[in-house]
Design brief:
The complex is a heterotrimer of chains A (about 290), B (about 450) and C (about 290). With about 290 residues, chain A is an all-alpha fold. Chain A has two domains: about 45 residues, no CATH class; about 220 residues, MetI-like fold. In chain A, about 70% of the residues lie in helices and about 0% in strands. Chain A has 14 helices and no strands. In chain A, α4 crosses α14, α5 crosses α11 and α8 runs antiparallel to α11. Chain B has about 450 residues and is an alpha/beta fold. Chain B has two domains: about 210 residues, Periplasmic binding protein-like II (D-Maltodextrin-Binding Protein, domain 2, 3-Layer(aba) Sandwich), CATH 3.40.190; about 210 residues, D-Maltodextrin-Binding Protein, domain 2 (3-Layer(aba) Sandwich). Chain B is built from 17 helices and 14 strands. In chain B, β1, α2 and β2 form a beta-alpha-beta unit. In chain B, α2 crosses α12 and α13 packs across α14. Chain C is mainly α. Chain C has one domain: MetI-like (MetI-like fold, Orthogonal Bundle), CATH 1.10.3720.10. In chain C, about 70% of the residues lie in helices and about 0% in strands. The chains are: A mainly alpha (about 290), B alpha/beta (about 450), C mainly alpha (about 290). Chains in contact: A-B, A-C, B-C. At the A-C interface, α1, α2, α5, α6 and α7 of A face α2, α4, α5, α6 and α7 of C.
């Protein structure tokens, strides 16, 4: 280990090991339960078994016909990826203006953004639906049932958060670089694109991740704003939890298998993007 | 860096293109053959492949008959469906035909958003006579104001373990609640229990209370008055809780069970009776140790504490349970909607649906052909002895209030029998909620 | 100095705020106004179809909210949310610290830490529900007999525990992002000074996390308050009185009682009641004011 890396060390080695093991155990024990349950029978899961009395992997083949999971995953990936990119970029530009310029109403906007974040989704569902369907009735714009509609909704819901994440990050960035560029006659857009965005990649990745997950985990809006062709993974997944009143068992093991399958793409994407979560401004290439 | 950005830009373009691609595929449809009928129907996770095949065959038949397409949309749960109904009704657009649970039909009726069935509509469906008379019991408040067209019926019954009953020397399953309690006591020994009851379920508890009260002559609602503070209701709760606390014929863990856990417990083959189940549970029961050793039987129809039903008591073997079809008032394809409903309520389609999914036909002729099957006898009998829950827009609230009594009492049950005073307070609270909801009913 | 300020004022690119502003006005503010209007009308199953004509009843719904247990629900929600946030913050920061320095397998550990956050709420809730049933694995392993986790007063602690399990990665991610803004020179300076890890951590590193973590606390608390799926799937509706949190009450009123006007009033009222402490918090921590 290099001297520089050693200098960056935050925790002594033994403490680091203990924390890592504890935290991993906290996540992995319930995760192990999910994995085992996905290999168990529905009756076994319902009766509270941890270790299956008989193993079977057939849930992993059944899930694809029980609900249209593949279509859902594709739709979710598309909608959430576009939402993540758009909300991170839009959040960055909005935050840039809010951080670098003073104007009347700036504080109100910043506080208002947090206020927007506190509105419960259940309150918004009906009005948003009415708005979208009137766009269809009066303007001839089909919004409900399209990926666009879902994207616009998620983008807007993610925006207050993305903006705030970027605000807290941009504040820490030195002004010198932009000012140098500005005296050379660079436009605001150029400054954003050439200087601000490359410098704030870690924060952009984080706000992108949150925007992505917001869409990925939403069932409420997706279930009324989509049609079978545009269902998201979360909607498809929610079918696995369905059970008829007083009737058959829910398909527990398929639900667990489907949840793992749906989590996989996100974890893989995160593994790809986490390398941008690296320390220090120097890594961003200022020097 | 520059190269990386070019890739990023290309990626973004591709994603945006994907977002638009086939996104706006809502068929507007114009004139005759190009029309599409949207049908909202519950997801079937037990038999997904058969369900997809059924949808396909219906679509083909419908296309052959009318030239129009049927597009099925599925909902995951009753809550999901309610959200869809609510948003569609407010916006005045959405599915043309809805399949809704029977107990939800009064609520749907009260919105006034579904087509009332006059003589003409019934004629389009092939006549009212085509349906099992009992299934029409929850189509509307009276004969002239019906909105629900019976589609399938799923009466509630008990399942019992034939071997355990035989071993305990019981030759005939119970027909009164007292008899059931007595037999359950006989069946309880060691790790074996007499009854499997889902105390923590959100749908089961009120069915017991409603059933026992109705059999004792109190259908819970009398016009605009809620009658929950009645000795029959209290007796029902006492019997229901008593199995766990005083009779001790239920696994103590049942206090935390929802219906699936009760199914699982009975499926293990260590329980005498599974007190509230229906035909759709067959698959789950047959995948357990109890396979081949169980049978359905009617729920008791004589109220607790009695050996015969009182004069005003009703022989309610089950709530009237199953699905009704509703045609949306805002639909621009009403004629097609009725053609679809006619198609799926015809004898042949109904029998096919029964064979695939175990839901009993609402079509009288179709049900008639199933009567000869002795295994089905309890189910068909229960279907005919099903009694409709009170038809009022307030029913959803009453059901909730009844369940809430059970939910809030669970922690007390863990400590022992619940005191009469506690129970009275909780029932009084439920009565208050039920009555205030009835007062709002229009 | 004065002239420079003037120039930058002239060039303020405020138009950059318009796309975001338009979106939020259209998709959040207009629906919110509609929701507020709904809270003033008697909208229920009987008036739903002609909702535009539903009778205006002023503050009637608000008065009824107070009578139908809303204050208790708000109290439950807020205490549950604050408690959950208080526990997740140290966990999240610790997790960020252990994954900051590179080592073999760090990417994997980072991914593991994300998992609770990636699993949909209803799956998390179903999993815990089966693990916590009386004859489930938790009681069996800990030898607790048939302790009731999902009914009665224990249910509140169950809700807090499961929420903590599901929500700490949020704090972790925010703290991780904050750690990225620590300058290399800071590490080097500490190394030169020979500062040991604990003073370095508390005096040098943690101040960098103040902004993101305070923001995370705020947003996490709001998310806890508005979390509906977790209590709904864990306990079902009607929920035990001890976990009848605000979203459950709003949901039951809206989608089981079908009193849409009343439920909108409840939601608006709790929004206002949450907004007041929120405003005070924002002022107190001065998150929105430049350093």
């Amino acid at each position: 280990m290099s001297a520089q890396a050693e200098a960056q060390r935050l925790l002594p080695r033994p403490l680091l090991a203990v924390f890592t093991v504890l935290l991993c155990a906290m996540v992995l024990v319930p995760l192990a339960y999910i994995v085992l349950a996905s290999l168990n029978s529905d009756v076994g899961v319902a009766s509270g078994e941890f270790w299956p009395s008989s193993f079977t992997a057939e849930s992993y083949t059944k899930i694809w016909t029980t609900a249209d999971l593949s279509t859902g995953i594709v739709n979710s990936l598309i909608v959430c990826a576009v939402t993540a990119v758009a909300s991170a970029l839009l959040g960055t530009t909005t935050a840039y203006v809010l951080v670098r310029y003073t104007f009347f109403g700036r504080l109100t906007i910043l506080r208002g953004l947090v206020g927007l974040q506190s509105i419960p989704g259940t309150l918004m569902l009906l009005p948003v639906f009415v708005l979208f369907s009137s766009a269809g009735n009066y303007l001839g714009l089909t919004v409900i049932g399209t990926r666009w509609g879902l994207f616009v909704a998620y983008l807007t819901f993610a925006l207050p958060f993305s903006t705030w994440v970027m605000v807290t990050y941009l504040r820490g960035l030195p002004r010198e670089l932009e000012e140098a560029a500005r005296t050379e006659g660079a436009s605001t857009i150029t400054i954003l694109w050439r200087i601000i965005i490359p410098l704030s990649l870690p924060a952009i990745v984080v706000s992108g991740i949150f925007a992505f997950l917001l869409g990925w985990n939403d069932v409420l809006f997706a279930s009324v704003l989509t049609r079978p062709e545009t269902h998201t993974a979360a909607v498809a997944l929610s079918f696995f939890g369905s059970a008829q009143e007083g009737g058959a068992l829910p398909v527990y093991s398929q639900m667990m298998a489907a949840a793992l399958i749906c989590a996989a793409p996100v974890v893989i994407l995160y593994l790809v993007f986490q390398r941008y979560l690296v320390g220090g401004l120097t890594a961003g290439g200022v020097k | 860096m520059r190269f990386g950005r070019a890739i990023a830009l290309t990626g973004a373009t591709v994603l945006v293109a994907a977002l638009t691609a086939c996104g706006g595929g809502d068929d507007e449809g114009g004139g005759g053959a190009g029309k599409t009928l949207n049908v909202l129907i519950g997801a079937n996770t037990q038999y997904p492949e058969e369900f997809a095949a059924w949808q396909k065959s219906i679509s083909e038949k419908f296309k052959a008959q009318t030239g129009a397409e049927v597009k099925f949309e599925q909902f995951a749960s009753a809550n999901d469906e309610l959200t869809k109904i609510q948003t569609s009704v407010v916006a005045g657009s959405g599915p043309d035909v809805y399949a809704v649970g029977t107990t939800f039909t009064p609520t749907a009726y009260s919105t006034g958003a579904f087509v009332k069935l006059g003589d003409e509509e019934w004629k389009k469906l092939g006549g009212k006579e085509k349906f099992v008379p009992a299934t029409l019991g929850i189509s509307g408040p009276d004969e002239q104001n019906q909105v629900g067209i019976p589609w399938v019926s799923r009466p509630f019954v008990m399942a019992y373990n034939t071997e355990l009953l035989k071993a305990a020397g019981i030759d005939k399953p119970a027909t009164t609640w007292d008899e059931l309690t007595a037999q359950a006591k006989q069946l309880t020994k060691g790790d074996q229990y007499g009854l499997a009851i889902a105390y923590k379920d959100n749908f089961d508890p009120w069915k017991f209370v409603w059933g026992m009260s109705t059999q004792a002559g109190n259908p819970l609602v009398d016009g605009k008055t809620a009658k929950l503070q009645d000795p029959t209701v209290k007796k029902a709760y006492e019997t229901y809780f008593g199995w766990l606390t005083t009779d001790k014929v239920v696994d103590p863990a049942a206090i935390g069970w929802t219906n699936p856990q009760a199914v699982a417990a009975f499926a293990k083959g260590k329980t005498g009776y599974f007190a509230l189940t229906t035909a759709t549970a067959v698959n789950s029961l047959d995948s357990g140790a109890v396979k081949g050793k169980w049978a359905f039987t009617l729920l008791p129809t004589v109220p607790p504490g009695a050996t015969s039903r009182p004069g005003n008591g009703v022989e309610a073997a089950s709530i009237l349970s199953g699905d009704n079809l509703l045609v949306a008032d805002y639909s621009k394809n009403k004629d097609l909607a009725f053609e679809y409903v006619k198609l799926v309520t015809d004898q042949e389609v109904q029998l096919d649906y029964y064979k695939k999914f175990g839901n009993l036909p609402a079509n009288a002729a179709a049900l008639e052909t199933l009567k000869s099957d002795p295994k089905l006898a309890p189910l068909t009998e229960a279907a005919q002895k099903s009694v409709a829950t009170p038809f009022t827009g307030a029913w959803a609230d009453i059901q909730l209030a009844l369940t809430n009594v059970a939910v809030q009492t669970l922690p007390d049950l863990a400590k022992g029998p619940v005191s009469a005073a506690t129970l009275d307070t909780r029932i009084a609270e439920a009565q208050k909620k039920a009555q205030s909801s009835l007062d709002r009913a229009k | 100095m004065a002239s420079r300020k003037k120039v930058s004022e002239l060039q303020r690119p405020l138009w950059l705020l318009t796309p975001g502003g338009l979106l939020m006005t259209l998709i959040i503010l207009i629906p919110l106004l509609l929701a507020i209007w709904i809270s003033f009308i008697d909208l229920d199953q009987y008036t739903l179809r002609r909702w535009v004509e539903a009778p205006f009843i002023g503050i009637g719904n608000y008065v009824e909210s107070f009578e139908s247990g809303l204050p208790k629900s708000i109290w439950l929600s807020v205490s549950f949310a604050v408690l959950s946030t208080a526990v997740t913050v140290p966990i999240g920061i610790a997790a960020a610290l252990v994954t900051q320095n590179a080592y073999r397998g760090r990417a994997l550990v980072r991914a593991v830490f994300l998992i609770p956050y990636v699993l949909p709420s209803f799956v998390v809730a179903s999993v815990w529900r089966t693990m916590l049933q009386p004859d489930g694995i938790v009681n069996e392993t800990l030898g607790l007999g048939s302790t009731l986790w999902l009914s009665g007063s224990n249910s509140y602690w169950t809700l807090v525990l499961v929420e903590i399990w599901a929500a700490w990665p949020f704090i972790y991610l925010m703290a991780l992002a904050g750690l990225q803004s620590v300058d290399n020179e800071v590490h080097e300076a500490s190394a030169v000074d020979g500062t040991t890890w604990w003073p370095k951590l508390t005096r040098v590193i943690l101040p960098y996390l103040r902004g993101p973590v305070l923001l995370a606390c705020l947003l996490a608390t709001l998310n806890h308050i508005n979390n509906f799926t977790l209590p709904f799937v864990l306990f079902g509706a009607p929920a035990p009185d001890d976990v009848n949190v605000m979203p459950m009450l709003v949901y039951v009123t809206s989608f089981q009682g079908l009193r849409f006007g009343l439920s909108a009033a409840m939601a608006v009222l709790s929004l206002v009641l949450i907004a007041i402490p929120l405003y005070a918090y924002l002022r107190a921590v001065r998150l929105d004011v430049d350093k």
